[in-house]
Amino acid sequence: MEFKTLIFYALAAILIFAALRVITARNPVHAVLHLILAFFTAAGIWLLLQAEFLALALVMVYIGAVMVLFLFVVMMLDISVDVVKQGFWRHLPLGVIIGLVVAAEMGLVLGGWTDAGLPEVAASASNTRDLGALLVREYVYPFELTAAILLMAIVAAVALTFRGKKPGSRNSNPADQIRVKAADRMRIVKMQPEIDLPVVAVEVPVETASGAKE
Predict the structure, then answer these.
(1) Going by C-beta distance under 8 Å and a sequence separation of 6 or more, which residues neighbour residue 214?
(2) Per-residue pLDDT in tens (0 to 9) along the chain, 214 residues
(3) Region of 190 on the Ramachandran plot (φ > 0 left; ψ -120 to 50 alpha; else beta)
(4) Among the listed residues 62, 48, 36, the one whose alpha carbon sits nearest the alpha carbon of residue 10
(5) What residues form DSSP beta bridges with 213?
(6) Maximum CA pair distance of the chain?
């Protein structure tokens, strides 16, 4: 067995274990940490397949941003574990059937795949550069359409967040902030000098060495 194949089987075993722990862990924080481990091992498998861009994107985007956000949300929310795990064993047979169907479909797809017709790639070639060139040359319109859809999703999320003003909430108007002047930011107020209060002397008793107060 080659060393590369051995590494693949080791990463695959870790990936399967981490994926199972995501759905079987009783603590939500432990489930998120196992999901991060699953993403790391998946990135390692993609590196073995010479898909460096997908591996780096998985590490930086999902693990570095999305999963950290999930971890903070899970730690801040008071999640009832009993409610989350309610009905787990009742729905387990259906989940196993769906998992087997997905595994069978993947087996059928991968079983008929062959790399006999693929062109030879030089060792110095960069799939990241080739992918970027392919996106901005042949698939530039779908790429821009995807960017526009993501922008619309961000604007819609912000609009849904500010929909319906709650009583007592403070909202800022960007137009008013742009039209603001320096005089509106700071105002000099002249105040009358305060009246000096008379100083009253207070005598404090001092104890001597003999214990008598003077």
Answers:
(1) 205, 206, 207, 208
(2) 788 889 999 999 999 999 989 888 878 888 888 988 999 999 999 888 888 888 888 888 888 888 887 777 777 766 666 666 677 778 888 888 998 998 888 888 877 766 555 566 666 777 778 888 888 888 889 889 988 998 998 888 777 766 656 666 666 777 887 888 877 777 777 777 776 666 666 666 656 555 555 5
(3) beta
(4) 48
(5) 207
(6) 110
Residue 79 CB neighbour total at 10 angstroms = 14
Residue 12, Cβ density class (10 Å: 0-12 exposed, 13-18 middle, ≥19 buried): middle
Closest CA to 63 of 86, 33, 91: 33
- Residue 18 structure tokens: 């981490």
Dihedrals φ, ψ of 207, to 5°?
Answer: -85, 140
What does the alpha-carbon distance between residue 194 and residue 211 come to, in Å, rounded to a whole number?
A: 44
Q: How many helices (H) and strands (E) does the chain have?
A: 10, 0
SS3 207: strand
**What are the tokens at 47?**
């590196």
Single-letter residue type at 34: H
The first and second tokens of residue 114, run together, are 């062959």
Using the structure block, give the residue that is written with the tokens 């008379």: 198
Token representation of residue 108: 């059928």
pTM of the model: 0.55
